[in-house]
Amino acid sequence: MNELFSVDGRTVLVTGGSRGIGLMIARGFVAAGAHVIISSRRAEACAAVAKELSAQGRCEAIPADLSHDEGARGLAAAVQDRVDKLDVLVNNAGATWGAPLEDYPESAFDKLWAINVKAVFRLTTALLPALRAAAGPDDPARVINIGSVDGLRVPAMEVYAYSATKAALHMMTRNLAHQLADERITVNAIAPGPFESKMMAFALDDPTIRAGIESQVPLGRIGRPDDMAGTAIYLASRAGAYLTGAVIPVDGGLTTHG
Ligand SMILES: NC(=O)c1ccc[n+]([C@@H]2O[C@H](COP(=O)([O-])OP(=O)(O)OC[C@H]3O[C@@H](n4cnc5c(N)ncnc54)[C@H](OP(=O)(O)O)[C@@H]3O)[C@@H](O)[C@H]2O)c1
Asked: What beta strand segments (E) does 56-134 contain?
């Protein structure tokens, strides 16, 4: 059974791996014996996290700004300079924007479309040579996109562009899964509910809002790092080899109502 869920020795790229959900996933993979590359815009933050995680295993940093095509292409090139194959690509980097309906800025749509959708497409396609090199008939290469419950149901907060881009990402996941199945590359999405992060700090750091969110979650709590790392590791292991085009809510049951 240990072997069924093993990711030992796999090469994994986690975008936005410097904090929040990306760090939860990166930390889980390092602890499970994978060789992890993390990426985010801020080089110092990335390097510091890679150094910390290297105490438990193998982790390195390649900074990149994924808000434009050259950034995504540059990251793909830098990764492919360092490794011969990429077993797992975790497209986690993302951003949100909240504002009242009539004040919601057009710029939010452009910003979030670029990072939450376009960057995932560009990075995945630019990394296809390394993913193909890892893909085998019984052990496909894996792409794991981090979507959101806000792309599955109407969010409680006014995050219009965010929820639209996450719904787009879920659809793109299915589209790429269909397209890449022949090449033995699986593409799945995790749709997280509330998890502790900088993105969620405005809500979770306020005890009243936090309690309100917890009361909405049927399992009665905020997500924990193991909840996120566990699902990503399952998808990346032999146990997840026959799953493609799925959008998995990791949300304590939030999407069972509302
Ligand atoms: N936390 C939640 O409850 C929750 C729920 C549902 C879905 N999600 C999704 O989970 C993912 C991670 O979110 P999080 O909550 O962990 O947010 P976070 O704490 O804000 O982390 C975002 C990460 O992405 C990186 N990043 C942001 N913009 C980037 C850019 N232009 N280029 C490269 N890297 C960039 C950030 O590092 P730099 O600032 O250094 O670039 C950071 O590492 C997102 O896709 C988010 O939509 C989160």
From this structure: 58-61, 88-91
